[in-house]
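Subgroup meeting minutes
Present: P.N., E.W., G.H.
Scribe: E.W.

1. P.N. recapped why we're keeping a running log of single-chain structure predictions: easier to compare across weeks, and new members can see raw inputs and outputs side by side.
2. G.H. added today's entry (426 aa).
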Amino acid sequence: MASRTSASGEVGHTGVLSHFEPRRLPFYLTFASVVAVLCSNSASNCLIGAALGALLVCHFRFGDALRFPPVKLPFGLFFLATLISVALSGHIREGWPGPRKFYLCLVLLLITSTFRKLSEVRALVIACTGMMTLSALLSLEQFWRKMQEAQALHEDFRAYYTVSRITGFTSHWMTLSGEEMIVLMLLCALLFFAGGGRMIGWLAAAGVVIATAFVAAYTRSMWMGAALGGGYLVWLRNRWWLLVAPVPVALLLWLNPMGVGDRLVSVYRPAGDLDSNQFRVVCRRAGWEMIKAHPWFGLGPEQVKAQFLQYIPADVPRPLPRGAYMHLHNVYLQYAAERGVPALAVYLWFLGRMLWDFARAARRTRAEERERRWVLHGALAVMIAALSAGWYEHNLNDGEILTMFLAVCACAYLAVPAAGGTESKV
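Output recorded in log:
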């Protein structure tokens, strides 16, 4: 079935049967899968499978097109490099989670095949904002309880809290922070470039709640990502606002509420093993040794954790700094060490192609194309934030964050002119 992209930014489908509601089931299931990932990864995975099944039924029954963003070649090569790495690692069974993670990449196919209008992207962001707000409220309640627990135990709050932080609906504070970072970037883009309409008050209030929980999560890598992605949006909206950007940071450093200022300072002055600075240095050095020893195909997925101790340089003092030595806490080093330098190269090609497509489309978008503009700039802010945070955390291996990240990229391709993405078929 043919598709078209209108000047207003709506992606429509021609044909009388395009309005037959049962055929919208793949869209509803896809929409639900993205929102659900903010509260339940298992539910989201089930909905992705159901959406794929419904989409295939509509494809074979009604001839509905299957569309995939124009990144099939680098995506396919990265998948192939992963399979080769698993096969050559000697640990095929243990390495299976690596290829299995590609299941989440179906989100790229599902969104570009089922979303028809940019107004649906707006609805998705608003729905995600609502779910994220509930998760943030729960996390703030967790934060209050942890304050009470630290007081009851007569322990320093920062020392007590840093090793066991808020999680909201998720299982880990890094996951919560990554989700909050993505939603905040999209929400800011929506409010800056398109306005929230009648919901602007509610959306702004939700943004304050999410931002408060985001700060309370103590995740420095995500703070950095949000600062860079948010700075990009502020620069586009009104670059003079950047002059006042240091004010809230200065207030946090001065007032130091619940140790947040100390956590900021720990970027360059850590409190021993409490902060993960030295632990991350060990991870980077071990990762470099892995890459030098296995540059072409890596150790294999899941083998960084299993073989970590073998690659720690001899001059690293023992005992090792306290930390989670389950991966390298750097998405780029991790993929190079796991799957080889060529795999990292095609992974960067995959990401770089999307950045290029979105930036080029954003430059060509007129000021009056408000829906197209906020979607593209929101996606660019998310990519800036996630990819910069990835230098200090293996964030895009987290299933929940990866699902959100890919959903944002797929939505952005709806705002790219037809030659850039929405006409690209499987």
